[in-house]
Specification:
The chain is built from two helices and four strands; from the N terminus they run βαββαβ. By secondary structure, the protein is α+β, with helices and mostly antiparallel strands. The protein has a single domain, classed as Alpha-Beta Plaits (2-Layer Sandwich), CATH 3.30.70.240. Strands 2-3-1-4 form a four-stranded antiparallel β-sheet, with helices on one face. It is globular and about 35 Å long. The N and C termini lie far apart (32 Å). Its EC number is 3.1.-.-.
Length: 88
Amino acid sequence: MRYYIVVYDVNEKRVVKVHRVLRAYLQWRQRSVFEGYLSDDELAELIRKLDSIINESEDSVVFYSLPNDKIVRSFHIGAPPDRFENVL
């Protein structure tokens, strides 16, 4: 298992679909940011599902791979993000 941070920028027509797929595998952090552990099989499955949704000429999904979550330090300032359901 490896720890991943996933960030996406996709056409608004596909945002909800991409969000739902990522949410099935990872923890949602903020609008287009997810994080969590994935096995090699889960990663391959997730990539296949995302690849069937996105348009590679318009959309981007970036995976940051880390050995574990112990080396990542995060903190938050400002208001917490809106619930995803309020985002188009």
